[in-house]
Amino acid sequence: MSKLAKYLNEHIVGNVFERPSVCATYARDQSILAIMPRLVAFPETTEDLSHLARFSNQLATRDYRLPVTIRGTGIDKTGAAVGEGLVVSTERMSRIEEIDVRGRLVRVQPGVTLGRLNAALSLQGLCLPISYNEEATIGGLIANCPTDDVSEQHGGIFHFVERVEAVLSNGDIAQFAPYSSHLVDLKTAQDSFEGALYRKIDQLLERYGDTIMNRRMQPFDPAGYANITRVHEKRTFNLLPLMFASQGTLALISDVILRVEVLPSAERRLIVVSQDLKTILKFLHFAHEFSPREVHLFDLRIAKIAAEFGNFCQLLPEGDLAGWAAVLEFAGSKHRIAKRIKYCLEGLPAGVFAVPETPENADTFQELRSALLSFLNNDDAGERQAIADDVYIPKHRFADYITGLKMIEETLNLALPVFGSYLTSNYHVRPCIDYASIDGRKLAMTFLRQYNHLISECEGSLTGGSPEGRLKAIVATQSFSPEERELYAEIKQAFDPHNIFNPKVKLGAELKDVIRHLHTVEEDGIVTP
User: Can you give the pTM of this predicted structure?
Assistant: First the structure.
């Protein structure tokens, strides 16, 4: 390894380290997995990324495996940001290269975080309307394509990316954007890796036409390479959709052009509390007509547990914390927001408690997030790490989902309070499990199987809100038809013939491999939603 590290350091601007203490820092993401890499690289330029990919590919042709795992800030919850070979961190590729205020476009490197980008854009009266963890990188948002909390209104990261520069598995650099048939013909005529890639994907579109059409007719799910359905649209051919939710398995993103929007003039929230689930769901269905920007739904057991550690939310009614709380956020002009909140308050069902946001109580609205953090980080019995976050549950089956969760709670003796987004139907549960024990590991896998079965029964999807990574892949890929499985394998083969980019992520995950990499030591720092 020392020779490899020395060679790479001689050929890139950035750094490559093999020191165990550095590698250990990058052995974890926010999933329940831990995988020690052999090397960790910190590229600073596209050329650095290109050299690292080319080097790994050349080793693979000589039957030496040094697979590449691309990583942003390590907040992935599916185990896709850890790997056994070369972990490539984009934290030094974090420049905001250009902001075009008039055209509402911005060009950035993949390691720029959402929070930092929006802070810079806000100075120009602009924003990237993605409501997600501010530590998420732009490259990570594309690679994971999560359902963020405002995606129902704004469409999510997919709708804001205009063009991507990416490093292919042989080290070549390609631009992905919509191309006319004439430009595609020019590309397919090239005697290059990129030309071969376009030819192969075109052939797959023809050969698997029925499978792709069938996938297009189903609700979108980022498992596999489902965005193959969006490659050929409106007389254009575009490989960019395949970058979304690919989790670094097809190419390494090196530069991004994004479309941005004008900042909303005002924002205001409303909290609604009810002990009865059906009552609050009925109200949220009614309030949906007034176009809230976000709607967060919480099982009040979360607030009850947090209150035991001193984090009591003053907005909640006094007494036994049982039932459900919803926080609705409206954006736009102050007059429009006031009107919509007024309509919501007038339509409150009997027995429902509500508090609108005012300048005097604005800070207390943050207490629900504090309660959630307290819930996630205060339990001596184990950890509340992400094991199956971002599941999709249709609105009309949410009550059935909660009923089924109660049965799992009783069967496995686990408390499973839910939190998530009502608008996007994207939900999370965080069971408290001791992953250091053998019994805890067995419990985790049993929970994952039973939970996946419940979600399927409720017409939902384990990967409806984010792709499968390593962890969810062991059960999610079982829903693929044989034709889908073949199609996704051939897409991977076309982009990455030597399987150097994040192997065993999305495709090829094995239960024994996942169990082997379940972490045995609690992660340092705060567990986040």
Answer: 0.96
